[in-house]
Amino acid sequence: MILHELIDYDVLRVIWWLLLGVLLIGFAMTDGFDMGVGALLPFVGRTDVERRVAINTVGPVWEGNQVWFILGGGAIFAAWPPLYAVSFSGFYLAMFLILAALIVRPVAFKYRSKRDGTAWRTTWDWALFAGGAVPALVFGVAVGNVLQGVPFELTPELFSLYPGGALAKLFGLLNPFALLCGAVSLSMLVTHGAAWLALKTEGVVAARARAIGSVTGLLTPAGFVLAGLWLSVGIEGYAFAGEVATDGPSNPLYNDVVRTASWMTAYAERPWIAIAPLLGLAGMGMAWLGMRAGREVSTLLWSKLGIFGAISTVGLTMFPFLLPSSRHPNSSLSVWDSSSSHLTLFTMLVATVIFMPLILLYTAWVYRVLWGKVTEADVADNSHSY
Amino acid sequence: MLAPRRRPRYRETPMELDVVELSRLQFAMTAMFHFLFVPLTLGLSALVAIMETVYVMTGRPIWRQMTKFWGMLFGINFAIGVATGITMEFQFGMNWSYYSHYVGDVFGAPLAIEGLMAFFLEATFVGLFFFGWDRLKPVQHLMVTWLVAIGSNFSALWILIANGWMQNPVGAEFNPDTMRMEMTSFTEVLFNEVAQAKFVHTVSAGYVTASVFVLGVSAWYLLKGRHTRLARRSITVAASFGLASALSVVVLGDESGYSASHTQKMKLASIEAMWETHPAPAPFTAFGLPDRAARETHYAIEIPWVMGLIGTRSTTEIIPGIDELVAEADARIRSGLIAYDALMTLRADRADAPQVIRDRFERHSADLGFAMLLKRYVDDPRDATEADIAMAADDTVPGVAPIFWAFRIMVALGFAFIAMMVYFFWRSSFRQQSYPRWALRIAVAMIPAPWIAAEMGWFVAEYGRQPWTVDGVLPTALSVSHLGVSDLLFSLAGFFLFYTVLFVVEMGLMLKYIRKGPFEDVEETEAWEARHEHRLSTHDGRGPFADAAINPAE
C-alpha cells in the first residue's frame, strides 16, 4: 500500500507532534479540573454534604476526562515509541506515584459514599486529595526535568540506559527548577478546579473555591514568569550540530546534538512563538480577574486558555526536541528521529481523523445533558450520586 | 554519525535475571488482577443493556429495577477494571522499555485506537448511565447503555488485536536502520487470524462469566426467598444468554486451537504434552503426568484421532511434537546468526554496505529473534558454542506440565458451564421457572468458576508463549527496562499493597450491595400489574391491544 505516501513523512511527524500537544492540552483542560477539585476537596468542603456536592460536580465526567490521559499514553506509545520507552522507564518511581494516584482516584470516587461512617469517608477524601494533588505536581516536575534534559543514554541497539538506584533517580528529579514547575502546574490546576467549582456549585462551596482560586490564580502567572526567567538565564538548551534529515529513519543516534547557552535562542529564530507565553499569561490573568469578579463561565474559559498557553509554550520552546539527554546529548529524542514509521503515523492519523470529531461531539453532548449547578438537594435525591 | 561508544552492556543490563523475573512477576500479577474485573464488565454491560431494552419495550417497572440493580454491581466492578487497566497501559513503557521500543511501531497502534474508538466511548457514557436516569428520555438512556456495552466490547477487540500480534506477529518486518520491527500492513495486523479467534473466545468468556454471576446471585435470592420476581427474570435472561455464550466459548476456543496449530506449534505441543511427532491423526491426551526431564508423559490416557482432528481438521496432516520443534528452533538459531552477522556489518557501515550483505540480511531476518535467544548465554551471539545453541533451542520449550494442566481445567469448566446453562435454560423455558434447591446451591457454588477458567486460559496463552514476548521475534529476557532490583521491589510491594486493599474493599462492597438487594418499588410494580391485568381481561370497548397502541410506553 502506498496510500500513506500521500502525506510526507516529515509533515506527518509535525502533525503527530501537534496531536500530542492536543492530547496533553485536552487532558489538562478536562481532567485538570477533576484533579483541581480533588486537591481542593478538604478545603472547600467542611461537612460531608459539602464534600459530596464538590465530588458530584465531577462525578459523572471524570471517567471520560481521564481517558485523555490514557489516550495520551497510548498515542505516545504508537506515534513516539522511543519517547514512551525512555520516559516511562526512566521516570519509573514517579510514574508509579502517578499510577498509584490514578488507581486510588476512580475507586475513591465510586466507593466513598457507598458506606456511612466518618473514618471510611475521611480516608477516601484524603485519597481523592492525593489523587488530585500528586499527579498535578508530578506532571509539572516531569516537564521541568524534560526542559533541563534527562540523564539517559541509548546503546547502539537503542536500549535505554538510565543508571542509578531507585530512590536516587526519584530524588534526582526533585531539583529546584523542576519543583518550581511542579508548583506552577499544581497551582494552575487548582485554579482550574476552583473555576469549575465556582461554576457548578453555589453557596459556601463556591465561595470558598473562589477565595482559594483568587490566591492561586495570582500565584500561577507569577510562577510562570519566574520559571521563564530562570529558563532563560539558568538552564542550557539543546540544538542539532548539523543538518538534520527531517524525513530520515527514526534513530536518534544518527543525529549529533550539542548544548546551547539557552533555550531562548528559539525565540530569536522564530519570534512568532512568543504568542504562546503571551496567550498563557493573558488567560491566567483574566481568569484571576474573573475569579475575583465572580464571573463563572468566562473564568473557566480563560483558565483553559491559560493552560493552552502554558503547555504550548513548553512544546514550542523545545521544538523539535521531545526529550533531551543530559548524559549523552546525541541520544536526545526529537520529532525528526523518534517517531513511528511512515505507515504507522499515517494509519493512526486516519483513525484520529475519524474518531476525534466523534469524541468531541459526544463529549459535548454529555456535558450539555449534565449542564447546571449541583446542589445539596441533588446529592440527597439521586440514589446513584457519589 | 555514531559517536564513539562503549560496547553494549547487555550482560549487566537487560540480562540481570532478577529484574527479568521480577518484571514478569509484576506483569503477571497486575494482568491477572486486571482480568478479574474485565470479563464481568464485558458480560454485565451486555446483560444490563438487554434488560433495559426489555424495560423500554414493555415499560414494566421491574425491568428498570433489574437494570439499576445489576448496573450498580457493574459500576463497582467497572471502577477497578478502569483503575487496573491504566497500570497495564503504562507498564509496557515502565517495565518493558526495550519491548516498547522494539515493537511499539506495531503494538502501540491498536492500543491507541482502543482509546480513540472504544475506551472514550464507554468512559464518557458510563457517567451518564448512572447520572442520566432523570435527565434523559428512556430511549436516550437505553442508547447510552448500549454505547457503554459496545464500547467495552470494542475495547476488548483492540486489546486482543495487540495481544494477537504478540502471538502471531504478522504484517511487520525488522528495519536495520531503526533497530526495530515496523508495520508493513495494517490490515494484516487487523485481520490476524489469532487475534480474531482470541477476540470472540474472550468476549464469549466474558458473557459466560456475567451469566454465571447473575445466575448465581439470583439463585441465592431464590434460596433465601427474597426478590423472587426479579431473581426469576434474571435467571431467564442469564440462562439463555449464557447458553449461547457457553456454546460459543467452546466452539470458538476450538478455533483458537486450530489457528495455534499453524502459528504457535510449540504452544500447542506443550498443551498436549506431545513430545514426539505422532503419525496423523494424533491422539488427544486426556490425562497424564508430563515429565520434562524424561521427555515423556507418564500414565497417559489417550483418545485416538481427536487431537489431529481438532488441530488440523484433517486425518492426514501431521502435528509436530516438541522434540521436532526443538530441532527446528536449532536450525532457525543458526539462520538467525547469519542475519545477526549481516546486521552488525550493516550497522557498522550504514551508508555503503554491499548489496550482497543486504540481501543476506533480508533472507535471514525472519530468524533474527532466534539468534537473540543466545544473548542469555553470550554477549555476542556469534561467539556462541554448540552447547549454547543447544541450550537456547531447548529454551524454546515452555513449562509443559503447568500449561497441560491449566488447559484441562479450563476445558473441563467450559463444558460444565454448558451443562449448567442447558439445565437452567430448560427449567426456565419448559418447567415454569421452578428450580430445585440443589440446583440453586450448585449455581451459587459455581460463581467463582468462570474466573478460574478465564485466568487459566490467559495462563496458557501467555505462559505458553515463553520464552518470547513476541513469538519468534523478541525474547522475554531482552524486553525489559534498565531498572534495578530496588525499583522492582518497591513497585511490586506497592502494587501488592494497593491491589490487596482494593480487592478487599471491592469484595466488601459487592457483598454489601448483593445482601442489601435491589430497590423494589412494590407499589409501582403492583399498580402496573393491576393495569396490565385489567388491559388483558377487559376490552373497555376498544379491545385488548388498543391501549398498547395509544400508550406504548407503559
From TrEMBL, chain A:
Gene Ontology CC, one term: cytochrome complex
Bilayer topology annotation: Multi-pass membrane protein
Top-level lineage group: Bacteria
Keywords of this entry: Cell membrane, Electron transport, Heme, Iron, Membrane, Metal-binding, Transmembrane, Transmembrane helix, Transport
Localization in the cell: Cell membrane
GO biological process, one term: aerobic electron transport chain
KW Transport (keyword) present: yes
Keyword field contains NADP: no
Stated family: Belongs to the cytochrome ubiquinol oxidase subunit 2 family.
Protein's recorded name: Cytochrome bd-I ubiquinol oxidase subunit 2 apoprotein
Source organism of this protein record: Albimonas donghaensis
TrEMBL record, chain B:
Protein name as catalogued: Cytochrome bd-I ubiquinol oxidase subunit 1 apoprotein
Its membrane topology: Multi-pass membrane protein
Subcellular location: Cell inner membrane
Species per Swiss-Prot/TrEMBL record: Albimonas donghaensis
GO CC annotation: cytochrome complex; plasma membrane
A molecular function GO annotation: heme binding
Region of interest: Disordered: 535-554
Record's keyword terms, sorted: Cell inner membrane, Cell membrane, Electron transport, Heme, Iron, Membrane, Metal-binding, Transmembrane, Transmembrane helix, Transport
InterPro entries in the cross-refs: Cyt-d_ubiquinol_oxidase_su_1 (IPR002585)
Record GO biological process: aerobic electron transport chain
One Pfam family linked to the record: Cyt_bd_oxida_I
Record bears the keyword Iron: yes
Family the entry assigns: Belongs to the cytochrome ubiquinol oxidase subunit 1 family.
TM ranges: 31-57, 69-87, 107-131, 143-166, 199-223, 235-253, 403-426, 438-461, 488-509
